[in-house]
Amino acid sequence: MNKWFKSGKPYIWLTAGAVSVSLIAVLGLLALIAWRGLSFFWPAAIHEVEVQANDGSTRVIIGEVYDREEVPISRLEESGVTLEGFEGDMLERKLFKVGNREFVPLDFMWVMQPQIIRDETPQDLAVLERSKDGNFYGYVVDVLENGESVANSENLRKVLFERIERAVEFNEKASDLQQGPIGAINYELNQLRLEARALDLEGQLTEAEQQRLAAEEQALNEQYKELEKELFAYREAASRDSVVMRDMRGMDVTIPMYRVLDATFPNDMGLLSKVGHFFVQIGKFVSEDPREANTEGGVFPAIFGTVFMVLLMSVIVTPFGVIAAVYLHEYAGKNAITRLIRIAVINLAGVPSIVYGVFGLGFFVYMVGGTLDQIFYPEALPSPTFGTPGVMWSAITLAILTLPVVIVSTEEGLSRIPSTLREGSLALGATKAETLWRIILPMASPAIMTGLILAVARAAGEVAPLMLVGVVKSAPMLPVDGNFPYFHLDRKFMHLGFHIYDVGFQSPNVEAARPLVYATSFLLVTVIVGLNLTAIGVRNHLREKYRSLEH
């Protein structure tokens, strides 16, 4: 046994076991997040439940079973709930999502299992996904066009789907018109206003310039009026139809079709239909904008903001980190000052991220951004352009936060390159700069990419500093659009990490937000893994490309 321990094999097995347990724990956590998040998109059965109250009265509830749990009878009695004739210590209760927010005080309600006297899943029950007030559950009674019925019992579903598709198409055209040509005209009108103010501040707002600006403004206003007519025509066409639904109160409710995004009959779906609906819902989640205080809809602006900010941060941190590492390793003297700088760089990696956020807000936003506004954008004052949190300041703040990682990783890569390569290159007549550019940096590129991978992994998940320097709950516009200069680095942006925080802790509807927290968390992990796999692929390519330099 002594000999076996001295051989080191027990430590190898212990290390392998620890790595295996860690890997299983990580994979188990990811599997749990994926299950809780992705199951939200699976079409759940819609129940029609008859519930009996303590006073003997009954009512009907229509909705999907959102959650269920076992609760102690004693806890229910302490909260004032009385259940006559029930024996036992534990009681099952179900959480129903009933939607129809405009007609019920809460779109979630708990129901005790003994109170349920009838539980059915009729095939005709429908779920309407709406742009406002969440889902609507009930029976489809009729489809109306300008108040007149256009469907019967035989073609009701067909007409419903056709009219929903038509309304969605007109809504999309109206949205594209608003975000495209109308948005471009509004942007140009604002630029004209800023140009006039700039000329006025410089004392160059002559009568000729005023006439030119007025003519351009008039031309833009005429274009706007034409586009506005087209926009109103789309909206009028979308509001022509409506659907009549019978809710759980037994009342017929008329819902304008322009507010309906989709209709499904989950109880009448087969397995293939459910799988198709599952992937369609996931596609909507990653491609649409959020709705209802981020508790519904998609997260595309947050995905775009996260990826754009991380890429911008990578472009900033990589050259500065590499230059700093090259100076420290190749040019700086081996003295106390250099050692002190290295210690400071290493210690910077342990500074809390919120401190970087405070520094970014005070230095970059207020000092640098405010100075830029006074020098380059005085016509926009007192409204700040760069003197307010934005995506550029967020990227620079996270670049400083991750700079120590890139410096340390690059310097480690430089230290692994044999000095004989440097000496051989110099002996053959190359200058130190040529040796560095053609030999050292290519060989150290895998280490540089390793540092970038670590920087991306940390930056993509940071939230605390971003709350101070650019991230917001809801951004009306993306940092990139079709208006010059196309990249608007002064704009605020959405971020997946902050979206998780906002939905999980600031949402007015906690029950509706819970599965979205898991779904967005899984999506954030997927985005980080995707960015890292891309960087790893580039690193492996560079390693193979410059492997010949080692020989």
Automatic annotation (TrEMBL):
It is found in: Cell inner membrane; Cell membrane. One of its GO terms (cellular component) is plasma membrane. One of its GO terms (biological process) is phosphate ion transmembrane transport. InterPro entries: MetI-like, MetI-like_sf, Phosphate_PstA. It is a multi-pass membrane protein. Gene3D superfamilies: MetI-like (1.10.3720.10). Its main location: membrane. Residues 303-535 form the ABC transmembrane type-1 domain. The chain crosses the membrane at residues 12-35, 299-328, 340-366, 386-408, 439-460, 516-538. Residues 191-237 form a coiled coil. The keyword Cell membrane applies. One of its GO terms (molecular function) is phosphate transmembrane transporter activity. It comes from the Bacteria. Keywords: Cell membrane, Coiled coil, Membrane, Transmembrane, Transmembrane helix, Transport. Belongs to the binding-protein-dependent transport system permease family. CysTW subfamily. This is Phosphate transport system permease protein PstA.
